[in-house]
Amino acid sequence: QVQLVESGGGLVQAGGSLRLSCVASVSIFSFKSMGWYRQAPGKQRELVATIPSRGVSTYADSVKGRFTISRDSTRNTVYLQMNSLKPEDIAVYYCNAVTVWGTESWGQGTQVTVSS
User: Fold this and answer.
1) What pLDDT digit, counting tens, does each position of 56-111 carry?
2) Are the CB atoms for 6 and 94 separated by under 8 Å?
3) Are 63 and 43 in contact (CB under 8 A)?
4) Cα angle for residues 38, 41, 44 (degrees, 5° grid)
5) What pLDDT is attached to residue 55?
6) Which candidate, 101, 100, 59, 98, places its Cα nearest to that of 80?
7) Residues 18, 82: contact at Cβ < 8 Å?
8) Which of 26, 79, 85, 95 is the most exposed place for a label (fewest CB within 10 A)?
9) 3-state secondary structure string, 37-66?
C-alpha cells in the first residue's frame, strides 16, 4: 500500500509563497506520474499540476507561471512551489500518484489559506 504524506500548507498573505512537499513510502520511480490536486470549499477537486516519469509537466491555466512542480527521487518527494498566491488559491491540496500498473494513491491533504 502506497502512502503519500503532504506537508507545507499554512496561512500566507496574498502575493506570498509556500512550498508543498509530498513524501512517498516507495520509490517515486514506481509511478508513471505524480501530481497535485486541490479542492476548495463547495467545489470539485481539480488538477493543479502533474509531473510524469517521462515528458513535460502540465499545469492548470489558473496556476501557470506561478506554480512549479518538481521531484527529488533521492527523497521520494514531489514538491509544489507556489508563488504569487491569491485568495482564489485557497483549498486543501492533495498529492496524487499513479503507478505503472494503473493504481492510484492519494495523500491526506494539506490546507492552504491566503489572506487578502
Assistant:
1) 999 999 999 999 999 999 999 999 999 999 999 999 999 999 998 899 999 999 99
2) yes
3) no
4) 55
5) 87
6) 59
7) yes
8) 26
9) EEECCCCCCEEEEEEECCCCCEECCCCCCC
For residues 114 and 22, give the distance between their C-alpha atoms in angstroms, rounded to a whole number. Answer: 20
- Within the chain, residue ranges assigned H as helices are none
Q: Check residue 1 and give its pLDDT.
A: 84
DSSP, collapsed to helix, strand or coil, labels residue 36 as: strand
- State percent of the chain over pLDDT 70: 100
Distance from the first to the final alpha carbon of the chain = 40
Alpha-carbon distances of 17 from 13, 28, 67, 80, 81, rounded to whole Å: 8, 25, 9, 10, 7
